[in-house]
Design brief:
Blueprint lengths: L1 H16 L5 H10 L4 H7 L54
Length: 97
């Protein structure tokens, strides 16, 4: 899961941040599955810039019908509490951190 995230983030950075690859190469990477187009689409939206995976924002996959614990800002958690996502192992992907 982490390798998938890193590969998608790398392609996202190359195309949107550094503008180092062409649109044709970007589309090829998405079509061949080298990057996750849905995850990249979320990264472009405000509040989801650091999203680790799409499962963490699916309310049906949690016990209380909310997002995953890794989406909670660290400032709102108990002091010294270590958080880890059960889906992907993320330790915090809230955009306000």
């Amino acid at each position: 899961m982490r390798i998938h995230h890193q590969r998608s983030r790398y392609i996202y950075d190359l195309f949107y941040k550094r503008e180092a690859i062409s649109r044709k190469l970007y589309d090829y990477c998405l079509k061949r599955g080298y990057a996750d187009g849905n995850l990249i689409a979320k990264w472009k939206k405000q509040g989801f810039e650091k999203l680790c995976c799409l499962q963490c924002i699916q309310p049906r996959d949690t016990n209380y019908g909310t997002t995953c614990i890794c989406r909670v800002p660290k400032a709102k958690l108990e002091e010294g509490r270590t958080v880890e996502c059960v889906h992907c192992g993320c330790r915090g992907c809230a955009s306000s951190d």
